[in-house]
Specification:
Length: about 80
């Protein structure tokens, strides 16, 4: 389980949170929650939006071969297999 907190100075920034995937794992299910959830419209203020992007060891840039996908803020869980 991963837990954490983002401070106000991290607003509108990406945070890369590395984690290890055990060898031989065939499926990964990610579920997350956060407080004060709002729509991802940039004109809305007063809450939080979280988008989940996944990358592998080949790189963390969206155009890199390591880019595996982006959830969008409406998904609170994803399964990769």
């Amino acid at each position: 389980m991963l837990t954490g907190t983002f401070a106000k100075d991290h607003e509108r920034r990406y945070a890369h949170v590395p984690f290890d995937v055990p060898a031989g794992l065939h499926q990964l299910h990610i579920r997350y929650a956060y407080n004060d959830q709002i729509d991802s419209d940039p004109l809305i203020t007063g809450g939080n939006t979280l988008d989940l992007g996944l990358f592998d060891e080949r790189g963390i840039a969206e155009s890199s071969p390591g880019f595996r996908g982006w959830s969008g803020s409406e998904k609170m869980e994803v399964t990769i297999d």
